[in-house]
Amino acid sequence: MTTMTTDAVTPAPRAAQEGFWADYGRAWSRTPGSAVYLIAVFVLAMISVSVLAALFWTGVGLLVLIVGLPIIVGSLFVARGFGIADRGLLWLTGLPQIAEPEWNRDKTGTNGFWMVLTRPIRNAHYWLYLVHGMVVNPVISTISFTLTTVWLSVGLGGLTYWFWGVFIPRGDGSDWGRYVADALPWMFGGWSSWAVEVTLYFIAGVIFTFTMPWVLGGLARGHHAVAQGMLGRWRSDDLAAEVRAEAAARGAAVHAEDVALRRLERDIHDGPQQRLVRLQLDLAALERRAESGDGDAAAELAREARSHAKAALDELRALSSGVAPPLLQDRGLAAALSAVAATTPLVVHKDIDPTIDAVTSPEVARTVYFVVAELFTNVVKHAGATAVTVKASLRPSVSGAPSMLDVWVVDDGRGGATYAVGHGLEGLRERVAGLRGTLVVDSPVGGPTSIGVHVPVTQVAP
């Protein structure tokens, strides 16, 4: 029983010991970068406080003149540069990257001279960067630089004192090992002063070197915490970016709908409307022939009128399918995409996840259907392809981001598809942007062409 108990308890401390040394090894791997950062950021802080103090206080002194305001604005931009440099140097420490703040919260169109000139003054980030570069960073960098140099010099110098200490002149107070040996005869009795010095330096070197990863790592984390609070991104920045993205999406949606309506108007004018006018003329001629008793001519006109009526109906159906196809409303996006693929006169490979119907709103489904239908039309008309693949799937959310609906249309055609202002892929991109999505085009000359539609969806199917 005793052996069993010992075997059961022994692995726990061993595992804890292995975990400690593994963590210690990882801390040591980051120590060189932390040391370089702590030294470099001190140099950066001394330069920043000199430059920023001179610029800012000069601007304040000249505020009574107009030239003072641009100088203050310039100092804010310089402070931003120093802050970005500090965040860049933090990369050496291996700590997480600090997100870029939102530098411009002005609404779209507010680009007047004074609005642009005073934009940094109205942004709190610039002022925090100025305080950081002119006050906070110089103070904490001086403290961290002092501790860093102490730990590096005592740690490395103590371990190597046995080598370089022989080159120091002895006597005149340098031979302090003798005083230590006299003060502690029970410990160093009979030791030479050189042996006492080497031993004490070596012990100090071991202690400082052993604790160096924790000390330098802690100083680096302190800098990182300050930078995260003063130089990083705020929650309000994300909200401001969200508002601008919503505004941009609405603008893109309005523009895309306007283009689509104009195109629909043009298509109706050039297609069904002309056929209906011709049909009206044919019916009038048919009426005259019928009254004159010319049965054969009347029958021929009736056949032509019927043909024009059928063609107009087909065109109206084709146009309405780009607006709101009944299949999409009745059976969902997956079935509608399958129907588009089935009516395409090419070899079509389908990989459509039926679960996308549960996560797509009617607006998203209608836009995605229209875009995919237009892409298939482009493939048939312009790509010179023999086969096309359509794939639709749901990409799960990552780190709180919304789930994404991914739809790909890939053909083996000639390639070379590009955006053209006012029509084609540019119009499709605006439609997708109206849903805060993106349209990705990869179409090298010679093919193949891959076009992806990526649209965020707000909820996931249970």
How would you sum up this structure, described in words?
Helix 7 (177-183) packs across helix 9 (193-230) and helix 15 packs antiparallel against helix 16 (425-433). With 462 residues, the protein is of the alpha+beta class. The chain is elongated, with a radius of gyration of 38 Å. It has 16 helices and five strands. The protein has three domains: 6-233, no CATH class; 271-313; 326-457, Histidine kinase-like ATPase, C-terminal domain (Heat Shock Protein 90, 2-Layer Sandwich). It has a five-stranded mixed beta sheet with strand order 1-2-3-5-4.
What's the gist of this structure?
The protein is α+β, with helices and mostly antiparallel strands and 462 residues long. It has helices at 2-9, 11-61, 68-89, 113-117, 124-159, 161-164, 177-183, 185-188, 193-230, 235-270, 272-292, 295-321, 326-331, 333-342, 362-383, 425-433; strands at 347-352, 387-395, 403-411, 438-442, 449-457.
